[in-house]
Amino acid sequence: MTTESQYAAGSHPDLPPPPSMVGVVGWLRANLFSNTFNSLLTIFACYLIYLLVPPVISWAFIYADWSGDSRESCTSGGACWVFINARLGQFIYGFYPMEERWRIDTTFILLVLLLVPMFIDRFRYKGWLGAVILFVYPVISFFLLAGGSFGLKEVETPLWGGLSLTLIISIVGIVGSFPIGLLLALGRRSKMPAVSAFCTGFIELWRGVPLITVLFMSSVMFPLFLPDGVNFDKLIRALVGVTLFSAAYMAETVRGGLQAIPKGQYEGAEALGLTYWKSMSFIILPQALKHVIPGIVGNFIALFKDTTLVLIIGLFDFLGIVQAASTDPKWLGYSVEGYAFCAFVYWVFCFGMSQYSQSVERKFDTGHKKR
């Protein structure tokens, strides 16, 4: 009996793909050498990598100096990471008194401990814990960081700085801008003309002004309009400005998600007899927010990086404290190492937020993908 006779007509098994179409060779042909133009681009990119990557690796790792406490320890000609080691405490805590830095550590450790249960699916008290994080934790953090009560030494906000200040501004801005932006988005789509006009004007006003101008106005111009003897802390003014500025962009992101929801969803909610807030809470917003997760996280990442602008009002955030340390006569000439370290830290945080957003997208994926 021949092999052909073992199969009915039209039921022959598929032949395996050619070796050149699968595996590493197949991936290279499909992605890097699919045509002449892509092949030339691949060769040119490899040439650039050959020119740039080996010198950077040699400077940053092979010939770098890692240990020591002064610039005299940097003798190999590569990167002087001794500068980072010597100023690491200042980069993280700014000018916060060294004997009080445990308060900053306690504040962020407490936040991490409170957030960990929120990522556990079986944890049943997420609502209560979320309320504690939103309303109780900020009060505890304020008293810990500012001091002046409960036997804690008062530490003025001009002494705050470094990575801790960057995290404080970005966390407050992110947490505060999301609910405000959500309400502004709903208000802009409201059928009440007064509410819609107010929200539209608020959004367009804040989106039409650069953040650097907002910070400058909050620091210099705003106190001029206050009565004599009335003043707000510079950091509080910056936090309010950053939060409202980010809320305007968040509102437009959420509004895009609301407009992407089919009209039938709204009509279905009305047919069920749901009120406006119930339909938004249980039907419309869950779908809209799922669609705009990348945009929301993009706003958060942009806000985290925009915190560097607070330097213009005299607050030394992470980048500002690195710049200030680079001008120290004891460490002149090592600003490249400082900026490289700063860029790496920013990349770690931004990449972490990006990866978390992708995991959230996969978690809420309903399988409606375009093929």
Tally of DSSP helical segments: 14
Number of domains: 2
Structural class: mainly alpha
Question: What is the rounded distance between the termini?
Answer: 44 Å
Q: Note the main sheet.
A: none
What value does the Rg take, in angstroms? 28 Å
CATH class of the largest domain: Mainly Alpha
Mean pLDDT: 89
The number of distinct β-strands equals 1
Regions with little confidence, pLDDT below 50 for 5+ residues: none
Order of helices and strands: HHHHHHHHHHHHEHH
The CATH architecture of the largest domain is Orthogonal Bundle
- The name CATH uses for the topology of the largest domain is MetI-like fold
Name of the CATH superfamily of the largest domain: MetI-like
- Give the % helix: 55-70%
Percent range for β-strand residues:
under 5%
Query: What is the molecular shape?
Result: globular
Attribute tags:
371 residues, MetI-like fold, 64% helix, mainly alpha, 2 domains, single chain, 14 helices
